[in-house]
């Protein structure tokens, strides 16, 4: 199914007909051009700056790289499902990207339907006979991510959240069992913690993955296959997934100063089958020599744990505010979608 196209126009303004599923319940028509989007969310008029179209307001900046899938949202890289392209004099953004990426990052009301409790399940990747990535010097991913999960757990519990780990020892745990435990514990958030690896040992940086909406490709592909068209349990939380992923990526980049490889989309089993908003974080490239040395240091592990904790707490807080706003009368809601905590 082809998603509705959202026109990013610097000239004519036209409203797209029809509704998009998953939209927060309001009486407003959704913005269909960048001019309308800027007006609805109180940005200044969009401007072209070299190869970018930029929207600004106090404390917020959206910068769309034209003819690419790159969006900088407040200097955090977010990968869109499809490129921003020029058509009939206007720049166009795919409708699914507006509904499931841009809107959740601008309008907290779109998160009002997300699970609103404070139970977080952390999933340290791999374990047991599955070491995950192994550094040139022999560091194993399974060991480091378990330590990171324990550190994040301590930080979140100190902030008053309830936290469970899918594994607390060096045990192998099937992906299906990880998802089952998250469901059994009635998780409101599921974050799987990993370290990356690449045959090019120069590869470095931080990235976070969430599930693409049905009908949208993964970040590494431009065409669809049969699996891309299927609606998965994880798609129940498309808007919340984007918000959670954004806050995690922002938290990691801010806490560590690492290279921002962006919020990306993937159809990993855990993301497809998650019973709640979920994300997979890749906190460093274990194959990179410098990163390997950093991961041996307590100070750097503390930075990564802080970034993950900050991201989760920011997401939980914004969902709580969205639910509070939804409980008030619509006449008293903030139609601009402003959220200073973003």
Task: Walk me through the structure.
The chain is of the alpha/beta class and 342 residues long. The chain has 2 domains: 102 residues, Copper Amine Oxidase, Chain A, domain 1; 206 residues, Zn-dependent exopeptidases (Aminopeptidase, 3-Layer(aba) Sandwich). 32% of the residues lie in helices and 21% in strands. It is built from 9 helices and 14 strands. The strands form 3 sheets. Strands 10-9-11-14-12-13 form a 6-stranded mixed β-sheet, with helices on one face. Helix 3 packs across helix 9. The N terminus is likely disordered.
Topology:
Elements (H helix, E strand, L loop, with lengths): L4 E4 L25 H7 L6 E3 L2 E6 L2 E6 L4 E4 L2 E4 L5 E3 L2 E5 H12 L12 E6 L16 H18 L3 E4 L9 H10 L4 E8 L9 E5 L15 H4 L8 H19 L3 E6 L3 H5 L4 E8 L3 H6 L3 H30 L15
Parallel strand pairs: 9-10, 9-11, 11-14, 12-13
Antiparallel strand pairs: 1-8, 2-3, 3-4, 4-5, 5-6, 7-8, 12-14
Helix pairs in contact: 2-6, 3-9, 6-9
Short structural description:
With 342 residues, the chain is of the alpha/beta class.
**Biggest sheet layout:** 6 strands, mixed
Tell me the domain tally.
2
Shape descriptor reads globular
- End-to-end span in angstroms? 32 Å
Helix content: 25-40%
If classified by CATH, what would the architecture of the largest domain be?
3-Layer(aba) Sandwich
Total strands: 14
Q: Structural class, please?
A: alpha/beta
Q: SSE string, helix = H, strand = E?
A: EHEEEEEEEHEHEHEEHHEHEHH
- Low-confidence parts: 1-29, 331-337
Strand content: 15-25%
Could you name the CATH homologous superfamily of the largest domain? Zn-dependent exopeptidases
Radius of gyration: 20 Å
- SS summary, helix count: 9
CATH class of the largest domain: Alpha Beta
CATH topology of the largest domain: Aminopeptidase
Give the integer mean of the pLDDT values: 87
Strand order of the largest sheet: 10-9-11-14-12-13
């Amino acid at each position: 199914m082809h998603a509705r196209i959202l026109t990013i126009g610097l000239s004519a303004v036209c409203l797209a007909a029809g509704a998009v599923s998953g939209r927060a319940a309001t009486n407003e028509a959704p913005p269909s051009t960048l001019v309308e989007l800027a007006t609805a969310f109180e940005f200044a008029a969009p401007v072209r700056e070299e190869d970018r179209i930029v929207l600004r307001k106090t404390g917020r900046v959206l910068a769309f790289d034209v003819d690419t899938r790159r969006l900088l949202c407040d200097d955090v890289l977010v990968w869109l499902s499809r490129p921003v392209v020029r058509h009939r004099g206007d720049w166009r953004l795919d409708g699914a990207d507006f509904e499931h990426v841009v809107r959740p990052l601008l309008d907290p009301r779109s998160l009002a339907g997300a699970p609103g409790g404070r139970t977080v399940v952390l999933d340290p990747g791999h374990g047991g006979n599955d070491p995950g990535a192994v550094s040139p010097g022999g560091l194993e991913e399974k060991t480091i991510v378990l330590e990171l999960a324990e550190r994040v757990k301590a930080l979140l519990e100190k902030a008053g959240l309830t936290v469970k780990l899918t594994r607390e020892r060096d045990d192998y745990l099937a992906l299906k069992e990880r998802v089952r435990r998250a469901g059994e514990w009635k998780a409101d958030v599921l974050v799987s913690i990993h370290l990356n690896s690449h045959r090019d040992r120069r590869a470095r940086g931080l990235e976070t993955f969430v599930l693409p909406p049905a009908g949208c490709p993964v970040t590494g592909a431009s065409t669809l296959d049969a699996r891309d068209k299927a609606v998965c349990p994880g798609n129940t939380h498309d808007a919340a997934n984007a918000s959670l992923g954004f806050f995690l990526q922002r938290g990691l980049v801010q806490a560590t100063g690492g290279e921002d490889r962006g919020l990306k989309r993937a159809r990993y089993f855990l993301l497809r089958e998650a019973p709640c908003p979920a994300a997979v974080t890749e906190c460093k490239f274990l194959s990179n020599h410098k990163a390997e040395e950093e991961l041996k240091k307590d100070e750097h592990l503390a930075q990564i744990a802080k970034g993950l904790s900050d991201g989760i707490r920011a997401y939980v807080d914004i969902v709580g505010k969205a639910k509070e706003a939804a409980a008030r009368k619509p006449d008293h809601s903030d139609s601009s979608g402003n959220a200073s905590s973003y």
